[in-house]
Amino acid sequence: MLINDQHAMTSAEVADFWRNGFAGPFPLPVPDDELAELGNRCERIVVERHTQPLYGRYALRDWHLVDPDLERVFTQDAIVQRVAQLLGPDLVLWRSKIFYKPPGADAIGWHQEWGKFDGEEIGNSTPSLQPPVAGEDIWDLTVWVALDDVTPQNGPLQFAAGTNTTRVPWVKVPMTQSAFYEEPFHGLSKEQIVERTQRSELVLDIDTADWLDGYDVAAASRDELTDFLDRRFDQLLAKFTDFNPDPDSVATMVMPRGGFVIFSERTMHGSPPNNSDRRRMAVNCRIAKADTLVYPGRLTGNMIDGSNLDISNHESLLVAGSAIEERNAIRR
Ligand SMILES: O=C(O)CCC(=O)C(=O)O
Ligand SMILES: [Fe+2]
Predict the structure, then answer these.
(1) Is 201 a member of any domain?
(2) Where does residue 210 fall: left (phi above 0), alpha (psi -120 to 50 degrees), or beta otherwise?
């Protein structure tokens, strides 16, 4: 691949990345109005709970495989060339996710992912990826793109610099205490709660389809129903880290729309609440070295990923170089 100087990081920026665990923000050369429109589309996906056609249910994952504009954003030279400086010339983009923080949205607690991928989502322990050298190499990086201006008030992404080399211990706690848990019943009638439960659309990525089997829905009040469901959620365990960063190490990623950062999931990151009256829309994607076997479980017929999605129709995108791991499903 020809590295265009315009998109190359300096050797100091590369060294900072390995020391701090993140790089950027950098600008994406995509017109502002296109990014704003894409942000509006992502908002509709979340607010109107669109079915992701690849997965047959509401999901925030992998809309780049459905929306060519989102694919075009993630495959910009400005992104791919910088990631190639860090991971080498052969790269597959294997997943993406929408991160929507409307006004008043809660914080996303500090979290990191280490070694074998086992998903950042709540209640999930299915390994989805195997690194070429387990727990040793960095084989996968995240690129986070701002589709709105990010300010100190609207829930900016934050990093605890230097935590990329420290594995912070975690414990399993009831799901309602997870960094990702949001109260799922707000504003819903009893009938809507029942419908969402049966469609596994109450809490993203949690299969609740059979939770009401044998439960006398007709006899229960709305409060009794939500109590019942809360108790079920609390039987699920989620990862929890009691992590308080050194305030001097915290980097707050304020940037205009179209800014992006590159980071390792080993770096402790999170975001404070959105205390503004404007939404904060962002999308991320994950790019791995092309010798990584994506979704190894697929080889033995396990088509359900760590987010409870059926990945039978999932494909990775080759964004640079050659598709070294030939067993990967790559979109042609
Ligand atoms: O958008 C956020 O606030 C959090 C993003 C995040 O956790 C991630 O990109 O892995
Ligand atoms: Fe994250």
Answers:
(1) yes
(2) alpha
Report the nearest atom of ligand 1 relative to the CA of 282: 1
Token pair for 11: 């050797």
Together in a domain, 20 and 130? yes
Residues 134 and 279 in one domain: yes
- Percent helix, percent strand, percent coil in the chain, to nearest 5: 25, 25, 50
Of 19-23, 71-75, 148-152, 304-308, which gets the smallest average pLDDT? 304-308
pLDDT digits (tens, 9 = 90+) for 193-222: 999 898 888 887 788 888 999 899 999 999
Q: What is the mean pLDDT of the segment spanning 218-243?
A: 88
Q: What is the pLDDT at residue 17? A: 95
Residue closest by Cα to atom 1 of ligand 1: 99
What distance lies between CA 224 and its chain's CA centroid? 33
50, part of any domain: yes
Query: How far is the centre of ligand 2, averaged over its atoms, from the C-alpha of 239 (Å)?
Result: 13
Phi-psi region of 211 (alpha: psi -120 to 50; beta: other; left: phi over 0): alpha
Q: What is the mean pLDDT of residues 42-65?
A: 95
- pLDDT for position 134: 41
Domain region containing 153: 5-167+251-320
Residues 56 and 148 in one domain: yes
The pocket around ligand 1, CB under 6 angstroms, is made up of 99, 108, 142, 144, 157, 269, 271, 282, 284
Mean residue pLDDT of the chain comes to 88
Q: Are residues 11 and 114 in the same domain?
A: yes
Q: Residue 143: inside a domain, yes or no?
A: yes
Q: What is the pLDDT of residue 118?
A: 39
User: Of the residues 239, 261, 283, which one is the last residue of a structural domain?
Assistant: 239
**Do 94 and 229 lie in a common domain?**
no
Dihedral, CA of residue 36, residue 42, residue 48 and residue 50, to nearest 10: 150
Two tokens at 196?
């969402």
Q: What is the CATH number of the domain that holds 32?
A: 2.60.120.620
Reported residue count of the chain is 332
* Mean predicted confidence (pLDDT) in 79-107: 96
Instruction: Examine the fold and report which residue of 214, 239, 264 is the final residue of a domain before the chain moves on.
Output: 239
